[in-house]
Fold:
Amino acid sequence: IMYAAFLFVAVFVGYAVGSAPIVSYHYGARNHAELNNLYSKSLRLIGVIAIVMTALSMLVIPYVARIFVGYDAGLFELTSHAFRLFSWSFLLAGFNIFASGFFTALNNGLISAVISFARTLVFQAVCVLLLPALFGVNGIWFATIVAEGLACVLSLWLIYRKRNAYHYA
Structure:
């Protein structure tokens, strides 16, 4: 599941890394109108890509699972079911990855690190420990969705809080 997820998440990482120099340039040039334009268009693009990737992941699950675990029917079914749950996290992952990269581009590594650290370690660890107790084995797969949701709330709060300081909204 993680190998397949890396393929999907790489799209968001690529966009965040690729757009960062453009964001930095316009921020440094104090071109607030273009910074706002980049920010707005990026959010819309990430939203569309997130929906497409989530739908695409639902369609390719059997093929990807067969590559990795096709030798065992039970494991294949478990992997397919788990990936169907896990893939909903793609709806939020792009926003969190972009928010972290956006703050790095704005020369605020601390906020970028907080988003990244909270998303990948704090929220994920807490969810992996708590959700299986509530939902059984499916709680493990829900953990990523809930962790991305919590990270999205944090990202949105930080974006809202810093909007006037960086003039992107």
Summary: The radius of gyration is 17 Å. The chain has a mean pLDDT of 94. The chain is about 90% helix and 0% strand. The first helix runs from residue 2 to 28.
